[in-house]
Amino acid sequence: xxxxxxxxxxxxARRANESFGRKWTRRxxxxxxxxxxxxxxGALVVGIAIRPGxxxxxxxxxxxxxxxxxxxxWVKIAPDNTVTAIIPHGEMGQGIHTAxxxxxxxxxxxxxxxxxIMEAPAEKEFANFELGREFFFGQSNIPNAxxxxxxxxxxxxxxxxxxxxxxxxxxxxxxxxxAMMTAGAAARELLLxxxxxxxxVPISELRAEKSYIYHxxxxxxxxxxxxxxxxxxxxxxxxxxxRSEYKLLGxxxxxxxxxxxxxxxxxxxxxxxxxxxxxxxxxxxxxxxxSVAKLNTSDAKSMPGVVDIFNMGDYVAVxxxxxxxxKQALDYVEVEWTSAETDNxxxxxxxxxxxxxxxxxxxxxxxxxxxxxKAMESAASLFEAEYRVPYLAHACMEPMNxxxxxxxxxxxIWAGTQNPLGxxxxxxKTLEIDPENVTVHTAFMGGGFGRRATPxxxxxxxxxxxxAGVPVKLIxxxxxxxxxxxxxxxxxGRFRAGLDAEGLPTSWESTFVHKMDPxxxxxxxxxxPNVKAQYAESPTHVxxxxxxxxxxxxxxxxxxxxxxxxxxxxxxxxxEFRRKxxxxxxxxxxxxxxxxxxxxxxxxxxxxxxxxxxxTESFMTIVAEVVTVDMSGGGPRVLHVACAADAGxxxxxxxxxxxxxxxxxxxxxxxxxxxxxxxxxxxEQSNFHDYSMVRMDDAPKIDxxxxxxxxxxxxxxxxxxxxxxPAVANAVFKATGKRIRQxxxxxxxxxxxx
Length: 754
Fold this sequence. Notes:
It contains 21 helices and 27 strands. By secondary structure, the protein is an alpha+beta fold. The chain is about 30% helix and about 20% strand. The protein folds into 3 domains: about 20-260, Aldehyde oxidase/xanthine dehydrogenase, molybdopterin binding domain (Aldehyde Oxidoreductase, domain 4, 2-Layer Sandwich), CATH 3.30.365; about 270-340 and about 400-475, 2-Layer Sandwich (Aldehyde Oxidoreductase, domain 4); about 350-380 and about 485-745, Aldehyde oxidase/xanthine dehydrogenase, molybdopterin binding domain (Aldehyde Oxidoreductase, domain 4). Helix 17 packs parallel to helix 21 (about 725-735). It has a 7-stranded mixed β-sheet.
């Protein structure tokens, strides 16, 4: 008899001899949207086609213990009837473990109150291929005959790229809809089929409810049928419930991660404990591209508790008995860095470079409709404006950290990460070991916002632990976390509109630096017949990374500021001006109207106060915000934010509102204070004293109204951020007459309100 372990070893050997012909990258995979034209809408299946290719045993080996049964990829059942949802996303405060487990429980008819949650392991078989399929095919109707083939292709590609990402507001709208709900429905069908066989009754006479199967007065727990169900072939396209049939979804369910965070038992990356562990901290080259030229560690090595100090090329690491000892010793390390070509780069040279790229560089068109050139020539008038936004740091409350233990050709990593599988691969390459010898132990993240998708901090932990020969918990200081971030790009954007006699735009042209991520960030949903959006590449040495709402944050500010300027130019109210340009967009119009009504748009306000409005669409969610500011103190104080949002449906309304509030506060911090500046090639800011946050006493009152529609489910984690900066800037203009074309607002002197 061939054992599971022997079968798994044989499969591994076969895979080692296979080659995947095309070199995939995350960007090429996500960006190949042209393939979507091959398909047309329907339910998507993710992660339940475990019979083709005989993946059952391999998956079960990774996530089950004892007599637990893996019914589909994302759900297992224990003998005591505990149903466990296997969640392929990390929890960083967005409540995703709650939302996704509820989506699975809804379709499975599992008892959500008694469910357990397990984060999917960092293994290729649990790669997020649903992300790829959504990017390729969207909500298309893939023919049944091709469905399993498409799943196989997407899984192969996702495994090749080590894709296990939490980000892009994809968890609910992609994994939830495409994986958890489908897996739940498929599992329910399998359990009913197994009960039908065991009880010898028609399936039509059976029903599932709260983790039990019923036949009249007779009932039995799911666990009684799990073993048989696990041997049956799942339906790749099970029928999902109508929204009107939901029992859990659309209800405000308690967050499953909150109790442990309140009582202190929650485990974040920084809480990891390993026997024999030492502590480390690092100081990287201040300018990217520099390396250690001279190093004097004599004074630092003699300090109490210091274990060793390492020259790691482009950074220096200190290992000690405790973090404070390591940090104090690092302050006594004398290091000289090599010079770099970028040593003389500063904010002014960067934006001068951007301007040159826009004026003389090669342009790539992202969006085009109509004939912009001809429309501009025939316009009654033209209006132009230029906007600038700075680099931004992520400023996670939990600094970057990871614990690593490297020994005997193996490595364990304990960390909060937005891409566990990618972290495993990077670690393996760095240590030159087999990825299967790297184990990533995931934890809660004390903030992510895109920062923890980049595994530089985990990579350093592995490198330092390998040098030290003992387990090392590596913790970046707040200064290191601020100055060695992967920043939101700074952007220069120039906008031009051709206007008719009434001042309404008939043409729109935008030119900016940097390719958009995602490309639709610069798209215009207003009724403007002639549109062209284009960019010029202008790379700098500053390290970039995804930031909450990615490029929607810059272009939300650009577009909604420019629209407001056009309204003023036309001597029209900003709200009414937008309404005129949204006549063919009923969803957008309803969201805009709702926010305006919530805020009492147009009401009389005390002297020095004013309102600003904006509306954006990102991650399939439309959000409008009205901000009330008080300028009587000279600078902007945001008193109130009215937020209306249409994400099709809010899976957990309370959680959705919390995400809107979080996105607003995060974006408000950026609008008011956020700015990373470069001097002599290095980041100037270092901590919260010069990279300020909105504090509790500055936080506005926020009201959120959820609008339900028939649209597909949209994201929640990021769409609340893009509208806030333009809404604040537009309100400041109404209060002071000063148009803000460069963020943050703290750069500007407003004087007395008018």
